[in-house]
Batch of 4 targets.
Target 1
Amino acid sequence: MTLLAVERIKLFSTRSPWWSMFLALGLTIGFAAMMALQSGPEFPLTLSMTQVGRQFGILVVLVMGVLTVTTEYRFGTIKATFQAVPNRTAALLAKTALIAVLALLIGETAAFGSWGVAQVVAPEADLAITTSEQWRMLVGLGPIFAGSAVLALAVGVLIRQTAGAVTLVIAWSMLVEGLVGMIPTIGEDIQNWMPFMMANHFLTGSAGDSSDMPLGPWGALAYFVAIAVGMLIIALITAHRRDA
């Protein structure tokens, strides 16, 4: 509990988490409001359309996860942290738990905030949550945000430089996973196993061409979480073996 309290004080004493929270919520909810404003008889608003901004929210959470640890490496405060807490694993796990919970709360707020704003802007739209797939679309955003933050934090521990880590996580989620599908013959099969493709499959359920996915929605979530945890384990081992 002491480690968590210390990490909470350190995290919220900087501006980056505050800006990240406001930006993630603003982008996600803002896109929902835009979709609602553009809706009408010829362009009916659906529940899935209220969540189109989630990709931008995920990008912000990825950056927040990276900054959580690379900022300490940049200013050298990580050395003081490891001197005060010789058990580096415990210190990094406390940081991970804090950022994961924060990202989880941001995700849930973004999902239901988008849904609520859309209902206010377009009250005539049918946005009732009646199926398990629709509930998963909203409630599931929190775990995806949390997993994304953990994954980004792990990358930050491994690279230790903000620019490189941020570039990697953004390029991977926005560019690399899409380009993999262009590889002849095996591209689509590999692409279906990419972590953020799995995360999107969990949220969208059986929509679109998800029947080609190798796992069901809940299996996709488990796979995404396993990738994030695996990256975290690698990061913890690396941090334990090298100099701060």
Target 2
Amino acid sequence: MRRVLAAVLPVLAVLALSACDRASITPPPVETRVEVDTPALRTLKAQARIAPCPRATGSSDLPGEQLACLGGGRAVDLSSVAGPAVVPLWASWCVRCRKELPIYQRLFAEAGDRVAVLGVDYQDTQPDAAIGLLRKARARFPQVADPGGVLADTYRVRGLPGVVWVREDGSATFDNSRIDTYADLVRLVSDRLGVDIATPAAG
């Protein structure tokens, strides 16, 4: 009996390891389990006065991924987002994001006609909490949802907050710039995008 067990146990161990490997390689996609457009979320979005997702008609190096509009609305093909644009990545679980969201809102309110602002609720499984945070921060710029983290492979996102800078020629880069004040954001927009929003637009 002991000889039989000694022969069988290694085989069972290999089968168990193979099963674990298959499970780790092909996990169930998160995005299929997270609903970001429901009647309840649409109500929350309306109460938070979040702007509708844009009808993007440009071209950029952003990945050709269609992301759902957070809280309902038209989906956005990221590769159609024209520059210059600022695309902050955030989530309801990101403590620092709570400070930065109002700063991006100010950019949207004061210079949205010169630099597009589109938020990405990234790897967030609680869209209701995300909209609640936007309402508390009074951040009303358009938002898409990436609960499955499809941007991770393109930009090797390792932590939040982060931001994708889309230049006028469509080229895009990601970084984890620290933004403490609106002046920081104005300076970064000038450095990364070549847009001086500190100077009023010629009109």
Target 3
Amino acid sequence: MVVSINANKTCVTFGICSVKTDKLIGYAGIASISSLNRSGEYFILIGNKAYWGDGIGTEVTKVITDYGFNTLGLHRIELTAYANNPAAIRAYENAGYTHEGLKKEAGFRNGVFIDKIMMAILAPDWQGI
């Protein structure tokens, strides 16, 4: 993976490469990092659908979460997922994230408002990878 940290240290981004092809297939990281609150927001995008459903999302989420807690010293990492994306929600659950709430009609895609699921994990609850 390749890492990029912005100048004010509020975001860290990693490239996701396929083990089989060594090609870049997406990116993931932690944004909105608050050193005061020791928190940040996880994000991921795997652009090529051929790589969906293979557990890559779960594994990347675990790696980035571990980095957030053990390298950045965060206490809390949160995320939102579209309610109509059960595969993403399952990947986050498999990585240890728990549901915290629902943001009604917080996203707009293809002319429709969609609910978002709020999820998070705290450092004391992190079991590692």
Target 4
Amino acid sequence: MATKSKTTAKRKRAPAKRKTPKKAAPRTRGVLPAECRLENLPADAAAVAERIEGEGGYVIGSYCEPLGRNPLLLAALPIDQVEPTPFQRDLSDAHYKKLSGVIDRTGLFLDPVIAITAPKQGFWTPNGRHRLEAMRRLGAKSIIALVVPKREIAWQILALNTEKAHNLRERALEVIRIYKGLIDEDPRRPENDFAFYLEEAALVTLGLCYERKGNFAGGAYHPILRRLEEFSSETLQASLKVHQKYADQLFELDEKVMSVIEKLKERGLVSPYLRAFVVARINPLRWIKDEPPPLPEVLKTMKERLAKFNVDKVNQQDLAKVGGAPDTEA
């Protein structure tokens, strides 16, 4: 995995932010209603239809969606054959229980889940986990799904989900789950092929940290990782090993930071931003305006500065000036 080189003459620009598409002229894209009719299934869609039937489901119909004219299958699937993708955010108990109550009162299931074929058998839903669990809670035997033959849609849906959590911990955990799912699909593809789905290279490293320790203080280190980590041209498998090495180094650093924090507390210094204060004091990037050193060198410098950190020179006024992520951030 690549880190930024000292020899780069000019500072690299930050990745461009996703732009909201401009409003198109009316009726200039896609197909007319009659053109959504699908006379014959393409080979990939036909294979999925055969699998649906082979696993106890029933293909209700097929059509081309009206924007990109991609084939879709409307199917009734055995509910026990459908699972959420293993790399999406955690289930909200409150949400799916409330949803089950609404469905039960109306007596109607009107919003099909999105589904793709799972790698070996069954189906995954990248969009519909709470509807799936709500129907299970109600004792349903089957669930209606829009089955997409294009498996890559699972990662696209998660990357584009406007309702996904913005909490750093949840974002990072979602990214590392997507990452491991991608490795299961094709470990030889280069990491930077999936930059769109993964959002930030830093989130991969932080995801590994949060998997190891759910309350890891990622907010204190995220700005450093975000500035220094980039997606690599190496394979996903090889790049994951580098992210793991960085995660291990972060844990080692944070243990030393915690030792300094305990000494500050022993002196009676209290603040929800103690970690942010310590990390800011040892962060060499604060004074580097041009191309920064690579991440391993920065982490090494931070450890060296921690070893020389003089807690006796810190007072409550110093702490009052600091901001950033509080120590309790998850």
